[in-house]
Predict the structure.
Amino acid sequence: MLRDQSFIRPIRNRWVQLVVGITGMVAIANLQYGWTLFVTPIDSQFHWGKAAIQVAFTLFVLTETWLVPFEAYLVDRFGPSLIVGIAGILVGLAWMINSWANTLAWLYVGGIIGGIGAGIVYGTAAGSALKWFPDHRGLAAGLTAAGFGAGSALTVLPIAKQIQNSGYQSAFLTWGLIQGAVVLVCALLMRRPEKGEVPQPAKPVVQQSTRDFTPFEMLSTPAFWLLYAMFTMVATGGLMATAQLGPIAKDFKVADISVSFLGLTMATLPFALSLDRIMNGITRPLFGWISDHLGRENTMAIAFGLEGLAILGLITFAHIPAMFVILSGLTFFAWGEIFSLFPATSGDLFGQQFATTNYGLLYTAKGTASLLVPIASLIAGTTGNWLPVFMLAVAFDWTAALLAFWVLKPVCKRWLLTHGASVLQAA
């Protein structure tokens, strides 16, 4: 549609495409990471119960993850601009529905529509990073995922204040329109790489398979299901913290206590949410870059072990406001890297040609993990204690860490030998 080559050329630059993908991720971040701000206000108005309200979050995550493979196929078939443009409309519509939803059914509809829109943006941006940057796959995937992890850091306080001053309905409507508009702009700029546009490598970094596995071929391999199990285990703990941080702070009676940290003073919960978003963003490119040099499996073992320690510390010291802020930040720091490590590993093992759809299938593990989020609320409500929930998350994290080092590492080594590993070189 665009014929002016002087305009097309800079848009097709891979670093421009990376920035466009990151911007799209920032625009959809609040759909997941801002949700916790709305749970208590919704419950206060309608008294539906937090567990019932959190079903909307589960539906969001399920549709945001499990539909990505199909959405990736549509992107490959019709191009990113058209499909992501539709996503922009859905992203705005979802929070508009939430703004006037007066029944759980409508709240659930908003969650489903938002999940579809967010999944399109997430899958397209992540796949674009893998395709445009085969020479820095961990870093590019991490930077893209950072947009989703840290994208809400600057908007947590404005949304919280708008909820307090004008009601949660006003916040849903305002930010839904903003987020949808940004996604539409990104859709106009998104392009996929054509043959010859990805630069040839120059110096060795990491081994990758020379064979491009189709999605069906990938699904028949034990390596995929090992990655899927590990992704599910680690995502479970992170999603519990993401969705439940607000209620947890309320239950430990620290949410509204002022905390002074890093030269700033604010209430514990908004402080924790802001720091969490920043840490969740920093960790993704950082651990992605580390994995490009240290190896995916070694990096996973370190990060997953650290997350287990952070969650254990959080449940132990959550009653202390300053520690709640610090340890929740550390939990997010040790969790967010899964969204750079797993796509990079998927690309390494299964090739570049079908990278978007293949990672989309692996990404559905996040949807599987989301099924445990309402269960966490039910367990905490029944027992009156968050300890069983958090200990389960710790067990998952440490199991995944052991699997990464003792099982995944030898599996990947044999895999790359079997399928003709090539030494990828960084530009």
In short: The longest strand covers residues 203-209. The domain at 5-426 is CATH 1.20.1250.20 (Growth Hormone; Chain: A;). Confidence is low (pLDDT under 50) at residues 1-7, 422-427. The chain has one domain: 5-426.
